Amino acid sequence: MHSRVHSTAAVLCATAALTACSATHDSGSAPTPAAASTAASAGAPDALALGQSQVITRTDTGGRIGEIRFTAIKALPTDCIAGIRTGITLAVQVEIVNGSGEQLPVPDVYQLKYVDSTGATRGVETASVYGCDADYPQAVTAAPGGATQGWLEVRLASAPTTLVYSPMVGDQSSTAGNIKMLTPAPATIRVGVPAAVSAGADASGDPVPTSETVSAPTVPMTTARASVPAPAPVAPPTGLDSQGRPTGTGGALVGCADENYQPGTGIFEDGSKGFAAECLPGGSMR
User: Fold this and answer.
1) Euclidean distance between CA atoms 168 and 104, whole angstroms
2) pLDDT, tens digit, for every residue of 230-242?
3) Is 216 helix (H, G, I), strand (E, B) or coil?
4) What three-state secondary structure class fits 198?
5) Where do runs of H (alpha helix) occur along the chain?
6) What are phi and psi for residue 121, nearest 5 degrees?
7) What is the mean pLDDT of residues 121-133?
8) How far is residue 167's CA from residue 189's CA, in Å, rounded to a whole number?
9) Is the pTM of this model over 0.90?
10) Can you tell me the distance from the alpha carbon of 286 to that of 277, in angstroms, rounded to the nearest whole number?
């Protein structure tokens, strides 16, 4: 078993601009669009149902950036979560088919928000998944013209009715010294959350605790599992970057992110984000 930990802070600047240099994956064949899900949803009337596809285009040329489909939203069971758990932890499955010249990013904490039952729009936090990786293979950014399918995990402070995805798309002509962002259309996509999840239950109808601390399983040193590493902390100062690799793997530091005036988040040459001692509160650099 392994733990999968993603970055925890939300950025306010355009950090996705360097996707032309980021790690990519091409599945070799595009996911096939499917009809909309008929499962009951608590989302807004204008929200997509699970299984519905949305094409995203450039506002300047009308060119196709890509197509995205949210295919499943589940509340993760307790035994899949390591560390402190508050609210509801969701696993979200997506399928993305990129246009020939662009990369549509996989939704993450920088681009996802949610609407709760009061109508308030709130940010999401990252979740630490332990022991269930095989059930929830991670979605990774595909190359231009390629496709990807997989899961991402986020933690919410309250039950959601709608997920809101605002893609941050970097022009493929961007360089480290000349960052260009595209304006996508639509700028945001709303997806209805299944009513069972909105009510605080998983897909099986089992209640989901709203506040709980769950430790990673203890592995006896006398078993073969003793070689499995314990999950990394959620927000280590020198831990994993936004691509799940050791921080600094993405090349030279090219900028800093405004992490709600918290110091330390850098933007690296391949577009990944992670801890950088040179970055100060507010996104400035030493």
Assistant:
1) 8
2) 444 334 455 677 7
3) coil
4) helix
5) 195-198
6) -95, 130
7) 87
8) 9
9) no
10) 9
